[in-house]
Amino acid sequence: MSPPEQPRKFFIDRSLGRVAVPKLLREAGWDLITLAEHYGVPQDETIEDTRWIEDSAKLGWAVLMKDKRIRYRQAEIAAVIEHQARCFVITRGDLTSAAYAERFIINQQAVFAASNTPGPFIYAVHADRLERLYPPHH
């Protein structure tokens, strides 16, 4: 039996920071690139969310981000749909960097498995599970 497929590369939005969360995830074996690494500093501060959603989707990268209100942001959701993006979002804004990284790592198997399925989708990453925010279950 072959080992589980190494998941695609992940793109980390600026909302999760440039240093601590990416470092912790890389130490846990995640293949990722941060918004700052991809676009450069200081351009990273001015990139529109719809732009990086499009760019990362075209490159086949799944997205890790933090956004309490993602399900209400029509432009971002439209970009996710249009570009078949795969998104994993933590909907809490009050955790430490270590706690954000830990949420992704605890859910690593589920995130990796979902990231290898076709988009578009947005999953909320909770302490112990993923919850599909988009498209909603019927």
Automatic annotation (TrEMBL):
What are the residue boundaries of the VapC45 PIN like domain, all occurrences included? 9-91
Top-level lineage group: Bacteria
| Protein's UniProt name | VapC45 PIN like domain-containing protein
**Source organism of the structure:** Nonomuraea helvata
